[in-house]
Amino acid sequence: MYKIIEKKILSQGVNQLVIDAPLVAKKAQPGEFIILRVNENGERVPLTIADFDREKGTITIIFQEVGNSTRLLGELEVGEGVADFVGPLGHPTQIEKMGKIVCVGGGIGVAPIFPIARGMHQAGNQVVSIIGARNRELVILEDDMREVSDELTITTDDGSHGRKGLVTDVLKELLEDDEPIAEVIAIGPVVMMRAVAETTRPYGVKTIVSLNPIMVDGTGMCGGCRVAVGDKTKFACVDGPEFDGHKVDFASLMARQRMYVEQEKQASTEGGKCQCHCQK
Ligand SMILES: Cc1cc2nc3c(=O)[nH]c(=O)nc-3n(C[C@H](O)[C@H](O)[C@H](O)COP(=O)(O)OP(=O)(O)OC[C@H]3O[C@@H](n4cnc5c(N)ncnc54)[C@H](O)[C@@H]3O)c2cc1C
Ligand code: FES
Which of 34, 66, 214 should be mutated for ligand 1, with most atoms under 8 A from CB? Predict the structure, then answer.
Protein backbone atom coordinates (compact mmCIF):
# COMPACT_ATOMS: atom_id res chain seq x y z
CA MET A 1 0.00 0.00 0.00
CA TYR A 2 1.22 3.50 -0.87
CA LYS A 3 0.28 5.70 2.08
CA ILE A 4 -1.25 9.17 1.92
CA ILE A 5 0.89 11.53 4.01
CA GLU A 6 -1.00 14.79 3.40
CA LYS A 7 -4.32 15.78 1.87
CA LYS A 8 -5.51 19.24 0.85
CA ILE A 9 -8.68 20.31 -0.96
CA LEU A 10 -7.61 22.97 -3.48
CA SER A 11 -11.04 23.79 -4.88
CA GLN A 12 -14.37 22.04 -5.25
CA GLY A 13 -13.63 18.49 -6.42
CA VAL A 14 -9.90 19.15 -6.78
CA ASN A 15 -7.65 17.39 -4.27
CA GLN A 16 -3.93 17.38 -3.61
CA LEU A 17 -2.39 14.24 -2.13
CA VAL A 18 1.17 13.72 -0.97
CA ILE A 19 1.95 10.01 -1.26
CA ASP A 20 4.80 8.02 0.21
CA ALA A 21 6.55 6.48 -2.81
CA PRO A 22 10.34 6.76 -2.30
CA LEU A 23 11.38 4.81 -5.39
CA VAL A 24 9.23 6.97 -7.67
CA ALA A 25 10.36 10.18 -5.91
CA LYS A 26 14.01 9.24 -6.39
CA LYS A 27 13.71 9.48 -10.18
CA ALA A 28 10.76 11.85 -10.78
CA GLN A 29 11.22 14.83 -13.10
CA PRO A 30 8.89 17.58 -14.37
CA GLY A 31 6.59 16.42 -17.17
CA GLU A 32 6.39 12.79 -16.06
CA PHE A 33 3.34 10.97 -14.74
CA ILE A 34 2.34 8.00 -12.60
CA ILE A 35 -0.41 5.39 -12.98
CA LEU A 36 -2.23 4.36 -9.84
CA ARG A 37 -4.99 1.98 -8.86
CA VAL A 38 -7.08 3.05 -5.90
CA ASN A 39 -7.73 -0.57 -4.90
CA GLU A 40 -6.84 -3.96 -6.28
CA ASN A 41 -9.95 -4.13 -8.49
CA GLY A 42 -9.56 -0.55 -9.63
CA GLU A 43 -8.87 0.84 -13.10
CA ARG A 44 -5.51 2.36 -13.88
CA VAL A 45 -5.57 6.15 -13.55
CA PRO A 46 -2.77 8.24 -15.08
CA LEU A 47 -1.94 11.44 -13.16
CA THR A 48 0.86 13.92 -13.69
CA ILE A 49 3.53 14.31 -11.02
CA ALA A 50 2.70 17.78 -9.66
CA ASP A 51 5.67 17.78 -7.28
CA PHE A 52 8.23 15.48 -5.70
CA ASP A 53 10.48 15.50 -2.63
CA ARG A 54 13.44 13.17 -3.01
CA GLU A 55 14.51 13.54 0.65
CA LYS A 56 11.10 12.76 2.11
CA GLY A 57 10.45 10.16 -0.61
CA THR A 58 7.07 11.64 -1.54
CA ILE A 59 5.15 12.46 -4.72
CA THR A 60 2.38 15.06 -4.97
CA ILE A 61 -0.60 14.51 -7.24
CA ILE A 62 -3.43 16.93 -7.94
CA PHE A 63 -6.58 15.58 -9.50
CA GLN A 64 -10.08 16.54 -10.44
CA GLU A 65 -12.92 14.22 -9.46
CA VAL A 66 -14.47 13.54 -12.86
CA GLY A 67 -15.61 9.93 -12.63
CA ASN A 68 -15.66 6.85 -10.48
CA SER A 69 -11.94 6.25 -9.86
CA THR A 70 -11.02 9.86 -9.15
CA ARG A 71 -14.07 10.13 -6.85
CA LEU A 72 -12.88 7.05 -4.88
CA LEU A 73 -9.37 8.55 -4.76
CA GLY A 74 -10.83 11.78 -3.39
CA GLU A 75 -12.55 9.85 -0.59
CA LEU A 76 -9.25 8.54 0.80
CA GLU A 77 -7.88 10.22 3.92
CA VAL A 78 -4.42 10.64 5.45
CA GLY A 79 -3.16 7.27 6.72
CA GLU A 80 -5.05 5.33 4.06
CA GLY A 81 -3.39 4.42 0.78
CA VAL A 82 -3.66 3.35 -2.83
CA ALA A 83 -2.97 -0.22 -3.99
CA ASP A 84 -0.53 0.56 -6.85
CA PHE A 85 1.58 3.55 -7.71
CA VAL A 86 3.73 3.04 -10.82
CA GLY A 87 6.19 5.53 -12.26
CA PRO A 88 7.75 7.79 -13.19
CA LEU A 89 6.37 7.25 -16.71
CA GLY A 90 6.76 9.24 -19.93
CA HIS A 91 9.54 11.54 -21.04
CA PRO A 92 10.51 14.44 -18.80
CA THR A 93 10.16 18.00 -20.10
CA GLN A 94 13.24 19.26 -21.90
CA ILE A 95 14.49 21.88 -19.45
CA GLU A 96 17.39 24.10 -20.47
CA LYS A 97 18.25 27.76 -20.69
CA MET A 98 16.45 29.12 -23.75
CA GLY A 99 15.41 32.68 -22.91
CA LYS A 100 11.77 33.71 -22.50
CA ILE A 101 9.40 30.83 -21.83
CA VAL A 102 5.63 31.22 -21.62
CA CYS A 103 3.90 28.60 -19.43
CA VAL A 104 0.14 28.36 -19.98
CA GLY A 105 -1.96 26.33 -17.54
CA GLY A 106 -5.71 25.85 -17.79
CA GLY A 107 -7.86 24.50 -14.93
CA ILE A 108 -6.29 21.35 -13.47
CA GLY A 109 -3.48 21.76 -16.05
CA VAL A 110 -1.87 24.28 -13.70
CA ALA A 111 -0.79 21.30 -11.54
CA PRO A 112 1.53 19.76 -14.18
CA ILE A 113 2.70 23.16 -15.46
CA PHE A 114 3.95 24.13 -11.96
CA PRO A 115 7.05 21.84 -11.77
CA ILE A 116 7.86 22.74 -15.39
CA ALA A 117 7.70 26.50 -14.68
CA ARG A 118 9.85 25.95 -11.58
CA GLY A 119 12.39 23.89 -13.54
CA MET A 120 12.55 26.50 -16.32
CA HIS A 121 13.00 29.26 -13.74
CA GLN A 122 15.77 27.36 -11.95
CA ALA A 123 17.49 26.85 -15.34
CA GLY A 124 17.75 30.64 -15.69
CA ASN A 125 14.90 31.31 -18.12
CA GLN A 126 12.57 34.29 -17.96
CA VAL A 127 9.30 32.57 -17.08
CA VAL A 128 6.06 34.30 -18.01
CA SER A 129 3.04 32.33 -16.81
CA ILE A 130 -0.63 32.56 -17.68
CA ILE A 131 -3.12 30.54 -15.66
CA GLY A 132 -6.78 30.39 -16.53
CA ALA A 133 -9.96 28.98 -15.02
CA ARG A 134 -13.70 29.32 -15.44
CA ASN A 135 -14.03 31.30 -12.19
CA ARG A 136 -12.20 32.39 -9.04
CA GLU A 137 -13.02 29.19 -7.09
CA LEU A 138 -11.33 27.03 -9.74
CA VAL A 139 -7.98 28.86 -9.77
CA ILE A 140 -5.34 26.61 -8.17
CA LEU A 141 -1.68 27.04 -7.15
CA GLU A 142 -1.70 30.82 -7.67
CA ASP A 143 0.94 31.48 -4.97
CA ASP A 144 3.14 28.59 -6.11
CA MET A 145 3.03 29.79 -9.71
CA ARG A 146 3.81 33.39 -8.68
CA GLU A 147 6.90 32.19 -6.82
CA VAL A 148 8.41 30.50 -9.88
CA SER A 149 7.38 33.08 -12.50
CA ASP A 150 8.89 36.45 -13.46
CA GLU A 151 5.39 37.51 -14.50
CA LEU A 152 2.04 35.88 -13.82
CA THR A 153 -1.35 36.70 -15.32
CA ILE A 154 -4.56 35.05 -14.17
CA THR A 155 -7.59 34.95 -16.42
CA THR A 156 -11.11 33.83 -15.58
CA ASP A 157 -13.94 33.34 -18.06
CA ASP A 158 -16.35 35.35 -15.88
CA GLY A 159 -13.83 37.97 -14.68
CA SER A 160 -14.27 36.98 -11.01
CA HIS A 161 -10.47 36.91 -10.55
CA GLY A 162 -7.64 38.44 -12.58
CA ARG A 163 -8.42 39.44 -16.14
CA LYS A 164 -11.73 38.54 -17.76
CA GLY A 165 -11.12 36.43 -20.81
CA LEU A 166 -9.11 33.52 -22.09
CA VAL A 167 -5.46 32.57 -21.64
CA THR A 168 -5.01 32.99 -25.39
CA ASP A 169 -5.94 36.72 -25.17
CA VAL A 170 -2.90 37.32 -22.95
CA LEU A 171 -0.73 35.00 -25.02
CA LYS A 172 -1.59 36.93 -28.20
CA GLU A 173 -0.42 40.17 -26.56
CA LEU A 174 2.87 38.57 -25.54
CA LEU A 175 3.37 37.28 -29.08
CA GLU A 176 2.77 40.79 -30.44
CA ASP A 177 5.53 42.15 -28.15
CA ASP A 178 8.94 42.71 -29.67
CA GLU A 179 10.70 40.48 -27.15
CA PRO A 180 11.22 37.04 -28.71
CA ILE A 181 9.65 33.98 -27.07
CA ALA A 182 11.79 30.84 -27.15
CA GLU A 183 8.99 28.39 -26.32
CA VAL A 184 5.39 28.16 -25.19
CA ILE A 185 4.30 25.22 -23.02
CA ALA A 186 0.57 24.66 -22.61
CA ILE A 187 -1.23 22.14 -20.40
CA GLY A 188 -4.97 22.05 -19.83
CA PRO A 189 -8.17 20.92 -21.53
CA VAL A 190 -7.61 19.72 -25.11
CA VAL A 191 -9.63 22.64 -26.52
CA MET A 192 -7.36 25.06 -24.70
CA MET A 193 -4.17 23.37 -25.92
CA ARG A 194 -5.52 23.42 -29.47
CA ALA A 195 -6.37 27.15 -29.14
CA VAL A 196 -2.87 27.89 -27.80
CA ALA A 197 -1.26 26.00 -30.71
CA GLU A 198 -3.42 27.92 -33.21
CA THR A 199 -2.51 31.24 -31.54
CA THR A 200 1.24 30.63 -31.77
CA ARG A 201 1.22 28.99 -35.22
CA PRO A 202 1.26 32.23 -37.29
CA TYR A 203 4.19 33.50 -35.19
CA GLY A 204 6.20 30.28 -35.65
CA VAL A 205 6.88 29.98 -31.90
CA LYS A 206 7.66 26.43 -30.76
CA THR A 207 4.68 25.15 -28.75
CA ILE A 208 4.71 22.09 -26.51
CA VAL A 209 1.49 20.48 -25.27
CA SER A 210 1.01 17.60 -22.81
CA LEU A 211 -1.61 15.16 -24.05
CA ASN A 212 -4.04 13.17 -21.93
CA PRO A 213 -5.56 10.43 -24.10
CA ILE A 214 -7.14 7.36 -22.53
CA MET A 215 -4.30 5.24 -21.14
CA VAL A 216 -4.38 1.67 -19.97
CA ASP A 217 -1.01 -0.03 -19.47
CA GLY A 218 1.31 2.98 -19.78
CA THR A 219 4.00 0.82 -21.37
CA GLY A 220 3.39 1.25 -25.10
CA MET A 221 1.86 -2.24 -25.43
CA CYS A 222 -1.92 -1.74 -25.51
CA GLY A 223 -2.19 1.09 -28.05
CA GLY A 224 -4.93 2.79 -26.05
CA CYS A 225 -3.13 6.13 -25.93
CA ARG A 226 -2.33 6.44 -29.63
CA VAL A 227 -2.35 9.95 -31.03
CA ALA A 228 -1.69 11.30 -34.52
CA VAL A 229 1.27 13.68 -34.54
CA GLY A 230 2.35 14.95 -37.96
CA ASP A 231 2.05 11.97 -40.27
CA LYS A 232 2.98 9.52 -37.51
CA THR A 233 1.07 7.51 -34.93
CA LYS A 234 2.56 8.00 -31.48
CA PHE A 235 1.85 6.47 -28.10
CA ALA A 236 1.49 9.26 -25.54
CA CYS A 237 2.64 7.04 -22.65
CA VAL A 238 6.06 6.19 -24.07
CA ASP A 239 6.62 8.80 -26.82
CA GLY A 240 5.07 11.67 -24.82
CA PRO A 241 3.05 12.89 -23.05
CA GLU A 242 4.57 16.11 -24.50
CA PHE A 243 4.39 16.77 -28.24
CA ASP A 244 4.79 19.58 -30.74
CA GLY A 245 1.39 21.33 -30.54
CA HIS A 246 1.56 22.41 -34.17
CA LYS A 247 1.64 18.78 -35.32
CA VAL A 248 -1.02 17.19 -33.07
CA ASP A 249 -4.31 16.08 -34.62
CA PHE A 250 -6.52 17.47 -31.84
CA ALA A 251 -9.79 16.45 -33.56
CA SER A 252 -8.95 12.73 -33.46
CA LEU A 253 -7.67 13.07 -29.88
CA MET A 254 -11.02 14.54 -28.79
CA ALA A 255 -12.95 11.81 -30.61
CA ARG A 256 -10.90 9.05 -28.94
CA GLN A 257 -11.38 10.65 -25.51
CA ARG A 258 -15.16 10.36 -25.96
CA MET A 259 -15.03 6.66 -26.91
CA TYR A 260 -16.00 5.24 -23.53
CA VAL A 261 -18.40 7.94 -22.32
CA GLU A 262 -21.31 5.46 -21.98
CA GLN A 263 -19.24 2.91 -20.03
CA GLU A 264 -17.84 5.68 -17.79
CA LYS A 265 -21.36 6.91 -17.04
CA GLN A 266 -22.40 3.35 -16.21
CA ALA A 267 -19.41 2.88 -13.86
CA SER A 268 -20.29 6.12 -12.05
CA THR A 269 -23.94 5.23 -11.58
CA GLU A 270 -23.19 1.63 -10.58
CA GLY A 271 -20.50 2.57 -8.07
CA GLY A 272 -17.68 1.20 -10.19
CA LYS A 273 -18.84 -2.40 -9.90
CA CYS A 274 -17.58 -4.68 -12.65
CA GLN A 275 -20.36 -5.62 -15.09
CA CYS A 276 -18.94 -9.03 -16.08
CA HIS A 277 -19.57 -12.17 -14.06
CA CYS A 278 -16.47 -11.95 -11.87
CA GLN A 279 -18.47 -10.50 -8.94
CA LYS A 280 -15.84 -7.82 -8.25
C1 LIG B 1 -0.58 11.49 -18.87
C2 LIG B 1 -1.85 11.92 -18.18
C3 LIG B 1 -1.76 12.77 -17.10
C4 LIG B 1 -2.91 13.19 -16.44
N5 LIG B 1 -2.77 14.02 -15.38
C6 LIG B 1 -3.85 14.43 -14.70
C7 LIG B 1 -3.71 15.25 -13.54
O8 LIG B 1 -2.61 15.62 -13.12
N9 LIG B 1 -4.85 15.61 -12.90
C10 LIG B 1 -6.09 15.22 -13.33
O11 LIG B 1 -7.08 15.60 -12.70
N12 LIG B 1 -6.25 14.42 -14.41
C13 LIG B 1 -5.16 14.00 -15.09
N14 LIG B 1 -5.33 13.16 -16.17
C15 LIG B 1 -6.68 12.68 -16.51
C16 LIG B 1 -7.09 11.53 -15.56
O17 LIG B 1 -6.31 10.40 -15.84
C18 LIG B 1 -8.58 11.17 -15.75
O19 LIG B 1 -9.33 12.28 -15.32
C20 LIG B 1 -8.99 9.95 -14.92
O21 LIG B 1 -8.41 8.79 -15.44
C22 LIG B 1 -10.50 9.84 -14.90
O23 LIG B 1 -10.87 8.62 -14.33
P24 LIG B 1 -12.31 8.41 -13.66
O25 LIG B 1 -12.54 6.96 -13.49
O26 LIG B 1 -12.43 9.23 -12.42
O27 LIG B 1 -13.30 9.03 -14.70
P28 LIG B 1 -14.06 8.32 -15.90
O29 LIG B 1 -15.52 8.44 -15.67
O30 LIG B 1 -13.48 6.96 -16.17
O31 LIG B 1 -13.62 9.28 -17.09
C32 LIG B 1 -13.86 10.67 -17.15
C33 LIG B 1 -12.99 11.24 -18.26
O34 LIG B 1 -11.61 11.10 -17.89
C35 LIG B 1 -10.81 10.68 -18.98
N36 LIG B 1 -10.21 9.36 -18.67
C37 LIG B 1 -10.82 8.27 -18.13
N38 LIG B 1 -9.97 7.25 -17.97
C39 LIG B 1 -8.79 7.68 -18.43
C40 LIG B 1 -7.52 7.07 -18.53
N41 LIG B 1 -7.27 5.82 -18.14
N42 LIG B 1 -6.56 7.80 -19.09
C43 LIG B 1 -6.75 9.08 -19.45
N44 LIG B 1 -7.92 9.72 -19.36
C45 LIG B 1 -8.93 9.03 -18.86
C46 LIG B 1 -11.72 10.62 -20.16
O47 LIG B 1 -11.61 11.83 -20.89
C48 LIG B 1 -13.09 10.49 -19.58
O49 LIG B 1 -14.08 11.01 -20.40
C50 LIG B 1 -4.18 12.74 -16.87
C51 LIG B 1 -4.28 11.87 -17.97
C52 LIG B 1 -3.13 11.48 -18.62
C53 LIG B 1 -3.21 10.54 -19.78
S1 FES C 1 -1.34 3.33 -22.53
FE2 FES C 1 -1.09 1.49 -23.60
S3 FES C 1 0.16 2.04 -25.25
FE4 FES C 1 0.06 3.84 -24.06
Answer: 66
pTM of the predicted model as reported, rounded to 2 decimal places: 0.90
Taking each helix axis as running N to C, give the angle between helix 190-200 and helix 250-257, from 0 to 180 degrees, rounded to the nearest 10.
Answer: 180
Q: What is the pLDDT of residues 142-180, one digit of tens each?
A: 999 999 999 999 999 999 999 999 999 999 999 998 789
- CA-closest candidate to residue 50, choices 75, 14, 84: 14
* Nearest CA owner, ligand 2 atom 3: 220
What's the 217 CA to ligand 2 centre distance in angstroms?
5
Ligand nearest to the CA of 233: 2
Q: Find the 170 Cα to ligand 2 centroid distance in Å.
A: 35
- The number of the ligand nearest the C-alpha atom of 263 reads 1
Helix (H, G, I), strand (E, B) or coil at 201: helix
Yes or no: say if 1 and 79 are a contact pair by the CB < 8 Å rule: no
The C-alpha atoms of residue 208 and residue 181 are separated, in whole angstroms, by: 13
d(CA 264, CA 260): 6
pLDDT at residue 275, rounded to an integer: 45
Note whether 255 and 214 are within 8 A (CB). Answer: no
Shortest-distance atom of ligand 1 to CA 257: 47
**Cis-peptide, bond into residue 241, ω within 30° of zero:** yes
List of E strands, the chain: 2-11, 14-20, 33-37, 45-48, 51-53, 58-64, 81-82, 84-89, 100-106, 126-133, 151-156, 163-164, 183-187, 207-210, 226-229, 232-235, 242-244
